[in-house]
Write a structure and sequence with these properties.
With 292 residues, the chain is of the alpha/beta class. The protein has 6 helices and 14 strands. 39% of the residues are buried.
Length: 292
């Protein structure tokens, strides 16, 4: 291991954007083109790796319910790579600083004396707003937005602690973390909320402020990619489980909720959405609104 920090490589945490290859930033693409090694998430489009044919490609992605790389292992791989290479790219879906455990990787790298730089990317919520052609804020309707995840992974985080309930016990435990139950924003965007979608809707209706049964809901899967799909309806329809059979578990889903989003739907009626599940032409028919 090299002890001279000046001889260590530099790690770049690069946002890959929401999915489409051409939505990565120019800076991100330039860094890929000169990278020695690229550690990439599972959701990064394989075509994006064609931007770095000279680099070694290492998959370190995490997918819910699937075999994934432990975060402490990813941290170690990054530190080890800086001993051997000069330009290391950690390619993360969306923006590195949102739901991406960037803080853990940055901390590990800094503790090892390795220089690190973050290159932002377009997060899925903003790509979703662009796809709907609807702002997440709207004058007189919505002046606040919350990005939320109910994912509670605590593996290798500083929330883990030693179980001191028994003398001499050095085993670590993860405390129970309660999900956010009352997001206080006009427009809500849930990441990784597929399995909790109906429960989220029922809870919001029960709270009754500012979201009600008739509040518009849009669910976008694989946003910005050729496989993008849209389900549009109301909070009540979501609470009734009308979207449960529509979801495609192989695609990341974004749940967008708020009164501002009604302006993006031409005929949002809030009653029994007719849904075309065909992925062949990436079209969804929901509440008489057709999307290609």
């Amino acid at each position: 291991m090299k002890n001279n920090s000046s001889s260590l490589g530099k790690v770049y945490l690069v946002g890959a954007g929401p999915g489409a290859v051409d939505l990565i930033t120019v800076r991100g693409a330039k860094l890929l083109a000169k990278a020695d090694i690229v550690f990439h998430d599972a959701l990064v489009d394989p075509e994006m790796l064609s931007l770095c044919p000279q680099a070694e490609h290492v998959a370190v992605g995490k997918r819910c319910g699937k075999l994934s790389s432990a975060q402490h292992f990813i941290n170690k791989r990054l530190v080890d790579a800086a001993q051997k290479h000069q330009v290391i790219v950690r390619l993360k879906g969306g923006d590195p600083m949102l739901f991406g455990r960037a803080d853990e990787e940055i901390t590990a790298l800094k503790q090892a004396g390795i220089e690190v730089e973050v290159v932002p990317g377009i997060t899925a919520a903003l790509a979703g707003a662009a796809s709907l052609q609807q702002s997440l804020t709207l004058r007189g309707v919505s002046r606040s937005v919350a990005f939320i995840t109910l994912a509670q992974g605590t593996e290798n985080t500083n929330q883990s602690k030693v179980d001191e309930s028994q003398p001499g016990n050095n085993q670590t435990i993860n405390p129970i973390i309660n999900p956010i139950t009352n997001p206080n924003a006009d427009t809500l965007v849930y990441y990784m909320g597929r399995k909790d979608a109906a429960q989220i809707a029922r809870q919001l209706i029960k709270q009754n402020q500012p979201h009600q049964a008739t509040t518009p809901v849009h669910i976008l899967e694989a946003v910005s990619t050729p496989k993008e799909r849209l389900w549009s309806s109301t909070l009540q329809e979501l609470a009734d489980g009308k979207a449960d059979d529509w979801f495609d578990s192989s695609s990341p889903a974004l749940i967008m909720i708020g009164a501002a989003l009604s302006h993006s739907s031409e005929n949002l009626k809030g009653s029994s959405p007719e849904i075309n599940n065909s992925l062949q032409d990436s079209q969804i028919l929901a509440n008489s609104r057709r999307r290609a």
